[in-house]
Design a protein that fits this description.
Blueprint lengths: L7 H22 L4 E9 L3 E7 L6 E6 L2 E6 L3 E4 L1 H5 L5 E8 L4 E7 L4 E7 L2 E7 L4 H8 L5 E2 L15 E2 L5 H10 L3 H12 L4 H5 L4 E2 L10 E9 L3 E7 L6 E6 L2 E6 L3 E3 L12 E9 L2 E8 L4 E7 L2 E7 L7 E2 L3 E4 L5 E6 L7 E4 L6 E5 L6 E2 L4 E2 L3 E3 L6 E5 L4 E6 L2 E6 L33 H4 L7 H14 L5 H14 L3 H14 L7 H13 L3 H8 L10 H11 L3 H11 L8 H17 L3 H12 L5 H17 L3 H10 L6 H17 L5 H11 L7 H16 L3 H14 L4 H18 L9 H10 L8 H16 L3 H15 L2 H17 L3 H10 L7 H17 L3 H7 L6 H13 L3 H12 L11 H16 L3 H11 L9 H8 L6 H12 L4 H19 L1
Parallel strand pairs: 1-5, 12-25, 13-17, 22-27
Antiparallel strand pairs: 1-2, 2-9, 3-4, 4-7, 6-7, 8-9, 10-11, 13-14, 14-21, 15-16, 16-19, 18-19, 20-21, 23-24, 24-32, 25-26, 26-30, 28-29, 29-30, 31-32
Helix pairs in contact: 1-23, 8-9, 9-10, 10-11, 11-12, 12-13, 13-14, 13-15, 14-15, 15-16, 15-17, 16-17, 17-18, 17-19, 18-19, 19-20, 20-21, 21-22, 21-23, 22-23, 25-26, 25-37, 26-27, 27-28, 27-29, 28-29, 29-30, 29-31, 30-31, 31-32, 32-33, 33-35
Length: 1011
């Protein structure tokens, strides 16, 4: 059967069993550290450390005086960069270590603080708070003159709009107020200009207003709701069968609970639990959304958390802030314009909800991560952010304020600002290039166009200028100039030079390694140098999550790492920021997405992105890349002829990578269609080994080549090729499948008899070259034994003994060890090494043996002692054992001890009435008979000697030892010299040869069974 070279998705089903088995083995032996990101949050009286740990990680916490000690049950590395950048007043000096079992984190606490810790999904939250003196709270409450009172549409102060001290209105909030007060004409013109840009409608589109409707509807998923009454709280549990985002907030006397999936629910089950805390409940459903309203008693606080797919809402008298308070960031545009950006993980769709009580509309963004809400109300001239237990809730008072949802957060600003938003990270380190004030193209964290400082014509002059600034730099400004040089080189595609300057920066200032801007630029440089694992480590810093474009770069790296599904998810998160890049980079991101989609079988996604690329201007290099991907898509869809046409279009001199991929695909397709032979396919693929190296193509090529060699039964080349692929790419699912294939081939060779087709020496060499593939347990032991048996059958005794000796000493225990040790002793006897045989038998001696095992061991040990002329010990060992084989062994013992009477008696018991049969004597029987008559002759037992002659003369007339029998049984007819010579020659005859021959037969039969 020929090997399959279909896509990874199609190959996966046939390999899933082997992959799972190997995966378990990898997990059991893996000691690799996982990096835990730690986020620091300062909420005034409360400091929080949030550890992002996996669901499998357990922890224990213990306070020891002014220290908190956290124990985690696995080997972890901790990234405390956030604490360095955002230090906390009550927490300091985190130290961590690994004791061989647990990771231990020790944190120093300020005097007098209280601590609280709890688990919420994949987060461990440690709260450190300073107890508040009640008198101070009262004192602060009397300050009235500096309070801004927020009024609702009726002119009355609202209960859910708490007074905000004037000094808490941030500077950027004041600046935003000025920006959003735009003239109507200017706003309309800016909005129309924005609509003329690609995908602009997607930016400013808002969801339709959704109104509370009757509950007697049956749409979509049926949601299970339960309610529990506690002593001091009521708990609502919304049990979804799949993950959904949620928003939970109070407005007036109502609690709103909103989910970003459609459902219906039976609120009848909730009715019995309604009391003086929750007064009423109602539900509305609409496409893609589910809304609930609960009327509450005044003064109730709300806490929301997510437990797997369940959302839990706790209602009590306590007023508790969200675990993950929503923060705000300012985004500055060219021309000193501003907007608000709210960083959010996994924001849901933008929902506009009509409040039937107040009569206005609120904007709601559900959030997937539990406990993420706004701790307080934020007030601006044209809108306000409402307090929430979960999600983001806005109340706009101007049509000129636009809410735009991005994959990593929500932007709030005037319509003129949406197309020119600036990265908050990019503003921290200003660009040295001159900018045109009329240029409204956004600055970005990764901005090749600006970093180049012009085109190639100006490259030399710009480089000279940069080097001059480097030479003139002081110690304080040296790293700033190196930063300029690094980005300049990276902008021109010279990643190695850029990385060299980045390394110099880190040598001078080690703290820069945790700076998010530095990590982003370093990660991109490493990506272009194909150091994908290190690039991922740099780009995956959580501090970069607020930068939308970073998800595009993460997507490229993940795709090169073979994490195609993750790459698609990252591309989708960053897709909205594609418009910020020039055409060449947009094409690069889309090509990466197409490759990932094809690798996971998402043909629709691949075809859609290819259709966008077809309508885009591409350089010749990218055109060759797209031609290959077009052909690959057609090939996977069964359009063979059309695919070949695309593959043949790819020019090797334009794009070596795409050419290598195309040639490989053509070779495999032609082989699978029987258009070329295995030898021709191997020849073409060997040529391709040096066409393109360093990414997943090299692994795929080596994988296919190894399978072809195995198909040809060239096991050495097949296993060597697969081993090379595994050694080069050692951490992805393809590597595990190749390992499984190597193990299967090795098993076929030495367990299923395939090695019987090659010379024993070649089989032995192959075994030693790949012995790491020997499976553990009974299969591996059987494999070793069968190879040893084959070696014995061709007299490679020392090699066979070496195999079994390692097995006995290091792999086996108990009865299995004893059985194989007995087998090993037999090989030593065959190799004329009785001392080694006795050593291994004594080494594996145990207190109890099965009776059959004990008898065989005693027989082999007695034979060993006989060869060492320790006859009395040998005789004692076989005492009480009966049978022809034992009698033969006893005869050998007596012969060696020159006890002629017992020799004659023992052989008489072996031969018994054999003389009565006319069947010719076997060679063994002739040897026994000669020994008996020699013994009788040495005893001068003439009567028995004559009787032996009468009985066996006719059977010994011809054949082996016939002349010797005649001379010994006719002493008077022979001269004394003839008699002496016959006795001298035959006295050395031993049954050991026969005994050893039976051993050889035993090993040979085992080898036959194996084949």
């Amino acid at each position: 059967m020929r090997p399959s070279f279909k896509s990874p998705v199609l190959r996966l089903s046939s390999l899933v069993g082997a992959v799972l088995l190997l995966w378990l083995s990898f997990v059991a032996t893996s000691m690799a550290q996982s990096v835990v990101t730690v986020r620091s949050v300062d909420e005034g009286q409360v400091n929080r450390l949030i550890f992002y740990i996996s669901g499998e990680t357990n922890y224990q916490a213990e306070r020891q005086d002014n220290q908190l000690v956290l124990n985690f049950n696995e080997n972890l590395d901790f990234d405390f960069a956030s604490l360095s950048i955002n230090p906390l007043p009550f927490v300091s000096n985190p130290v961590y270590s690994f004791d061989g079992t647990d990771s231990i984190v020790t944190i120093t606490l300020s005097d007098g603080v209280d601590i609280n810790h709890f688990r919420q999904g994949s987060r461990l939250v440690v709260e450190v708070n300073m107890p508040v003196v009640e008198e101070e709270v009262v004192a602060e409450a009397v300050v009235v003159d500096e309070v801004i009172v927020i009024e609702n549409d009726t002119g009355e102060a609202t209960e859910d709009s708490p007074a905000v001290p004037a000094d808490e209105v941030d500077e950027f909030e004041e600046q935003l107020n000025a920006i959003v007060e735009l003239g109507v004409a200017e706003a309309e013109a800016a909005q129309q200009a924005l609509l003329n840009q690609p995908d602009a409608e997607e930016l400013i589109a808002t969801a339709p207003v959704r109104q509370i409707r009757p509950t007697n509807i049956d749409l979509g998923e049926v949601l299970a709701i339960s309610m529990e009454n506690g002593l001091s709280e009521q708990v609502l549990v919304f049990s979804w069968r799949f993950p959904v985002g949620a928003a939970v907030f109070k407005r007036g006397e109502y609690l709103w609970v909103i989910f970003d999936e459609e459902s219906s629910a039976d609120l009848v089950a909730v009715q019995p639990f309604l009391n003086d805390r929750i007064l009423s409940a109602e539900q509305a459903s609409d496409i893609d959304q589910t809304l609930f309203r609960f009327q509450l008693k005044n003064g109730q606080g709300v806490v929301t958390e997510r437990q797997e797919n369940n959302w839990v809402v706790r209602i009590s008298d306590a007023q508790i802030a969200p675990v993950m308070p929503i923060s705000l960031a300012r985004q500055e545009n060219i021309g000193d314009n501003f907007r608000i950006f709210v960083p959010l993980d996994n924001p849901g769709p933008h929902l506009r909800v009509l409040d039937p009580v107040v009569g206005d509309v609120v904007d709601v963004i559900p959030v997937f991560d539990g406990g993420m809400g706004s701790a307080r109300e934020r007030v601006f001239a044209q809108f306000k952010i409402l307090p929430s237990s979960q999600g983001l809730v806005l109340n706009r008072t101007s049509d000129q304020v636009v809410v735009s949802r991005f994959s990593n957060g929500v932007a709030i600003g005037g319509v003129t600002n949406l197309a020119v938003s600036l990265s908050p990270l990019a503003t921290d380190l200003s660009l040295r290039a001159e900018r045109n004030d009329e240029d409204l193209r956004p600055a970005r964290l990764i901005d090749f166009e600006v970093w180049r400082l012009g085109d190639l014509v100006a490259f030399n002059s710009n480089r000279t200028k940069l080097f001059g600034e480097l030479a003139a730099a002081t110690d304080d400004t040296l790293n700033d100039r190196r930063w300029d040089a690094a980005r300049f080189y990276l902008g021109h595609g010279m990643s190695a030079e850029a990385l060299a300057f980045l390394d110099l920066m880190a040598e001078k200032d080690a703290e820069i390694m945790v700076d998010p801007k530095y990590r982003a630029v370093r990660g991109v440089a490493l990506y272009y140098l194909r150091q994908y694992d290190e690039a991922w480590r740099q780009l995956s810093a959580r501090e970069l999550d607020a930068e939308a474009t970073i998800f595009l770069w993460r997507s490229l790296v993940a795709q090169k790492q073979g994490k195609d599904q993750k790459a698609l998810e990252l591309f989708e998160r960053g897709r909205e920021s594609l418009r910020d890049y020039e055409n060449e980079k947009i094409n690069q991101f889309r090509i990466g997405a197409v490759e990932a989609a094809l690798n996971v079988g998402q043909f629709d996604t691949a075809n859609w992105q290819l259709s966008l690329l077809r309508r885009t201007e591409m350089n010749s290099f990218q055109k060759a890349e797209v031609d290959y991907l077009e052909g690959h898509l057609l090939e996977m869809m069964g359009e063979y002829e059309e695919a070949m046409n695309y593959f043949q279009e790819v020019n090797e001199f334009v794009n070596r990578r795409a050419s290598a991929y195309s040639r490989y695909s053509m070779t495999i397709s032609r082989f699978e269609r029987d258009e070329i032979t295995p030898d021709e396919a191997i020849l073409e693929m060997e040529r391709l080994r040096y066409s393109w190296r360093g990414d997943s193509f090299e692994q795929r090529l080596l994988h296919g080549l190894g399978k072809l060699y195995l198909e040809k039964k060239d096991y050495r080349m097949g296993l060597l090729t697969l081993r090379q692929a595994i050694a080069t790419f050692d951490e992805n699912i393809e590597t595990r499948s190749m390992t499984a294939e190597m193990v299967d081939a090795y098993r076929d060779l030495f367990l299923n008899g395939m090695a019987e087709e090659m010379p024993p020496v070649q089989a032995l060499a192959l075994y030693y070259d790949f012995r790491e593939l020997t499976p553990l347990g009974a299969e591996g032991d059987q494999m070793i034994r069968r190879l040893a048996d084959r070696l014995v059958s061709v007299d490679l005794l020392s090699r066979a003994a070496e195999l079994l000796d390692h097995q006995v000493r290091f792999r086996l225990t108990g009865a299995a060890q004893s059985i194989i040790a007995t087998r090993l002793a037999k090989i030593y006897l065959l190799d004329h090494s009785p001392e080694k045989a006795l050593e291994i038998l004594r080494l594996t001696r145990q207190n109890t043996f099965p009776e059959d095992v004990l008898e065989e061991r005693n027989m082999v040990e007695a034979r060993t002692l006989t060869e060492m002329e320790r006859f009395e010990e040998a005789e004692v060992l076989i005492e009480g054992i009966e049978g022809i084989e034992v009698q033969a062994l006893r005869a050998d013992i007596y012969w060696g001890a020159e006890n002629w009477a017992k020799v004659a008696s023992s052989i008489g018991e072996i031969l018994e009435d054999r003389w009565l049969s006319e069947e010719p004597l076997s060679d063994d029987e002739r040897q026994y008979l000669i020994r008996q008559v020699i013994a009788l002759s040495l005893l001068d037992n003439v009567a028995d000697l004559e009787q032996a002659k009468l009985r066996y003369e006719s059977l010994m007339q011809e054949g082996l030892l016939a002349n010797a029998f005649d001379v010994i049984t006719n002493p008077e007819g022979s001269t004394t010299e003839e008699l002496r010579e016959v006795v001298r020659r035959t006295a050395s005859v031993s049954t050991l040869k026969s005994f050893m021959n039976s051993y050889r037969d035993e090993f040979a039969q085992s080898g036959t069974d194996a084949s």
